[in-house]
Amino acid sequence: MTSSDRGKDGEREALSPRTARVRWEEDLGKLDISEEEATPLVIDDRDKEAAQKWMLAGKVLHRHVFHIQTITSALRPAWGNPRGLVFRSVGENMFVAEFATQRDRDRVRDGSPWLVSKNVVILSEFEDCMQPSELKFDRLQMWARVLNLPFNLGDKKWWLPIAHQIDKLTKEVYFDHVGGYLRVRVTVDVAKPLRRCILIDSARRQKVDMYDVQYEQIPHFCFSCGRLGHSDLLCPTPGTRDANGLLPFGKGLRAMDERKKYSEGSTGEPSFTQKNKADIQSSSNAKEAGLEATSPLKSNSMNKRKAGTQVKVYRKVLPLLMDSPAANNEEILHKDGAAQVDGGGDGGERDPKKKKPTTTSSDNMAAAAGQPCLGS
Predict the structure, then answer these.
(1) In this predicted model, what pLDDT tens digit does every residue of 293-321 receive, in sequence order?
(2) Could you give the CA distance from residue 76 to residue 53 in angstroms, rounded to a whole number?
(3) Which of 151, 168, 146 is nearest to 202 (CA)?
């Protein structure tokens, strides 16, 4: 843009189409462009009958290239599998997501940050008439917390002044009285380090205090430079460690998940699952040391019997074999688990093809009639 294109106040002057074309041709003439190259193709690509499209462009910040199917499999369930959602690749780790409704598009846009394998996804507004070079993935929205504020700064009139210390354009802010922190929706520049703290000069406290800043659902970031998208092992500008060997940034920037916090109990004590794991681990260590190991879920008193209590033993009672006409012709022998039949004194084995004779009901009645009656 030349100096003649700007007015006295530095703003661009409004040019008529004829004037703009003349100046554009003058600029092309300086580049020694041929007439064929300077002849544009005039098209009317407006489609008035086309349905409204609601789209977002995204990029996964990672040095490795993710397949579009991997990105789709991670983001579709995270976004609630909205109806009509379509993904398509537009470059390395870049994609365009098309939604059926504006409501789904706005919900996904305002719900960032989103992650693919713990790597942040940067979202941007998209129109299909944009060029790929016009896509900018340099801003990320997330929730930040300002911790340990004095009680008097919890009033609503101080919320925005404190929030503007992190983001000058933020409008979403409220105070969480249960957690005791100020919650701010901020826009982070991924090319800059994360904000670690803010300073407040209080007239009532008569000193300058530093208050820590934490970020909710923060993805991978560099502990050396504090930027998103890479680790400290691959940092192009590594920082120096302090006397304790710690880097300038650390896990203190990561806000604790409320679901994990309340699963451990409001008193800060370990949960039942953690206690059970500790008991099992101590039992295993005792067993390795040669000590008697007992189950953490059972008590030794459960195995102790009361004094003087006799142990009752129940034995299986076998039925008596009654004499019968059928039993007189057979001799039941128990040897090695097999039964041998005496077939008329010849000592031969029973033919497996021959069936054992069965007694009829008349035989049973005759046998019962021949038995003596046992009185009481």
Answers:
(1) 444 444 455 555 555 556 666 666 666 55
(2) 18
(3) 151
